[in-house]
Amino acid sequence: MFRIERDRARFREIVRGRLRKDLRKYLSSTELLGRRGDKSISIPIPQIELPRFRFGDNSKQGVGQGPGEEGDAVDGEGQEGEGGGGAGEQAGEHILEVDVDLVELAEMLGEELELPNIEPRGNRLLSTEGGRYSGIRQTGPKSLRHFRRTFDRALRRQIAEGEWNPKNPRIIPIHDDERIRSCKSVPKPDSSAVIFHIMDVSGSMGREQKEIVRIKAFWIDTWLRSQYTNLEVVYIVHDAVARIVDQDTFFHLRESGGTKISSAYDLFLSQILERFRPEEWNIYPFHYSDGDNWSARDTERCINLLRDEILPRVNQFCYGQVKSAYGSGQFKKDLDDALGEEGRLVCAAVDDREGISEAIRTFLGSGR
User: CA neighbours within 13 Å on the CB side: how many for 60?
Assistant: First the structure.
């Protein structure tokens, strides 16, 4: 058994090495998005050679056998083949599916992008079962009976009832005297976080832009889940109006209306005031857009909302601008000009999929 475990550990190290080598590729592709479970993800790993016996035909002469001088070409090597398309006997390249814990995947992401661990801000007290039997109750299994407490209770009862005889000190507990050890519930601080994914779904945000957003959201969620025990995700879409949707609608909805970004910020603000109080939650909004807004007046309202209402209540606000053929990209310029000195506002521009990993590093690199 020890040898099996040792071989299994060695194989997992090989898999981890391959994952680390190809992690940049996974960071910019949708290959993993449909393979995620609750606690693990299935990852396709190509070209891992597993040791195996191979039986050959020893009747033929090979290297070291038969005629030939040093430097002569080995039979079939260095010669042009006939290039026939017939069936062969050699195995092709196979893909190996490996299950990897999401925590382990997040650890690799952190190492690859040099992400610091997050210092939680909001805490709330939850009653959780402790690991020690420090409480006492009157009912429970006999195996957990507290002998000293039971004896003390029985002695007090017999003295009170006048049954105690110092010359014949017999203590006989009855059912009401029994005291049982119990696992005591204690308040424990629990760091909770909520992620808001907010996306412009107007006509200028095409399929490729949404795929980039989808990839970024997957890796952001994976990292933050490794940092918090309790994590909730809320999806908000907006064009000229904003609304809360489920995950599937978030990534596949496309509308042709205009763009009014303040509608999304108003809805987000109402959510954190009503459902996710900053005193109890670590709040991470991520807004994705191509940079178009319907008017300079609405952009000014967005800036005021961010400065006065949103930034003081969140861990940080991340704005990711995705390049689009129809988007002007003006909104990021306005944010940089007006709020460039605000530490809790983090902006990143993504021109294509190759820029995803750098945007993730920008968003998560502060450790807030």
Answer: 6
